[in-house]
């Protein structure tokens, strides 16, 4: 039986290798560019500008308790931060192993460690986005609510869920490349099934009950409420989500390790 701490010990015992993999992952995104990693700050700035102008001013979208286009941009981007973490991980999951056959052929290389790379890189990008969001919030509203400190804790279940899915999709993707396309379609559906461009509390109760089947829904709403409204998240529910996603990640790792013996032959 797999030990519960296997997920963390896998990353901790190989932390030097993991650090290099993450650094390479981030560097590869901006290789050959003039401004380098400065582009990581440009994306959230650009999105906040687009939301302010396009969605707020041009489309006239309204949000409960929001009085200006700038505040609307803050509310929308607050919801998108966590989703982007999830979506970025899933974008890499399909070819996680299939695109790196050299690692598969190295007997001593810890292949499960590959899944940690996009998850940590996406988490770093999210924290950059949170910094930009906070600066924009200070400009629009003043000092953020102290409850913004809960956002990193809300990230943990999203990271664990993403980690489990990356292991599952990455392992199956070695044998069936179609799963990468299917997972991308699922991510697009999740974008609209998650309360990112709308406040779930404004929907009919039966729709709210249906949306609760989406595990990202509670986490996205909790992050936005902590950031925009100063609400403390439902901590028992957050702990339950953390435990559930930890178990899911363990199952994903177990499946990956069960299938990895056939990777070399499949590639």
Q: What is shown here, in short?
A:
The chain has 267 residues and is mostly helical. The chain has twelve helices and no strands.
Notes on the structure:
By secondary structure, this protein is an all-alpha fold. 71% of the residues lie in helices and 0% in strands. The chain is built from 12 helices and no strands. Helix 4 runs parallel beside helix 7 (151-175) and helix 7 (151-175) runs parallel beside helix 11. The protein is globular, with a radius of gyration of 19 Å. The two termini are 29 Å apart. The mean pLDDT is 84.
Uncertain runs are none
Radius of gyration: 19 Å
| Beta-strand content bin | under 5%
Helix content range of the residues, please? Answer: over 70%
User: How many strands, which pairing sense, and closed or not: the largest β-sheet?
Assistant: none
The number of E-state strands comes to 0
Order of helices and strands: HHHHHHHHHHHH
Distance, first to last CA: 29 Å
Average pLDDT over all residues? 84
Overall geometric form: globular
Number of H- or I-type helical stretches: 12
Structural class: mainly alpha
Strand and helix layout:
Blueprint: H1 6-13, H2 15-29, H3 39-58, H4 69-93, H5 101-104, H6 116-140, H7 151-175, H8 178-193, H9 205-211, H10 215-229, H11 235-259, H12 263-266
Keywords:
mainly alpha, 267 residues, 12 helices
């Amino acid at each position: 039986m797999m030990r519960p701490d296997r997920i963390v010990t896998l990353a901790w015992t190989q932390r030097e290798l993991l650090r290099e993999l993450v650094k390479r992952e981030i560097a590869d995104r901006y290789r050959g560019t003039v401004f380098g990693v400065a582009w990581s700050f440009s994306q959230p700035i650009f999105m906040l500008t687009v939301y302010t102008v396009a969605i707020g001013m041009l489309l006239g979208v309204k949000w409960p308790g929001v009085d200006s286009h700038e505040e609307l941009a803050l509310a929308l981007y607050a919801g998108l931060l966590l989703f982007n973490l999830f979506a970025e991980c899933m974008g890499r999951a399909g070819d996680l192993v299939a695109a790196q056959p050299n690692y598969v052929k190295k007997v001593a290389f810890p292949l499960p460690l590959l899944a940690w790379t996009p998850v940590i890189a996406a988490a770093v990008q999210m924290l950059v986005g949170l910094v930009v969001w906070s600066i924009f919030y200070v400009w629009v509203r003043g000092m953020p609510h102290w409850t913004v400190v809960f956002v990193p804790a809300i990230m943990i279940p999203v990271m664990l869920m993403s980690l489990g899915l990356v292991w599952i999709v990455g392992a199956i993707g070695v044998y069936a490349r179609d799963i990468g396309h299917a997972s991308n379609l699922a991510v697009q559906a999740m974008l609209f099934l998650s309360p990112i461009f709308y406040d779930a509390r404004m929907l009919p109760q039966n729709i709210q009950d249906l949306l609760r089947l989406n595990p990202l829904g509670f986490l996205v709403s909790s992050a936005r409420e902590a950031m925009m409204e100063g609400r403390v998240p439902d901590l028992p529910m957050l702990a339950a989500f953390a435990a559930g996603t930890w178990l899911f990640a363990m199952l994903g790792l177990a499946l990956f390790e069960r299938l990895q013996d056939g990777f070399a032959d499949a590639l």
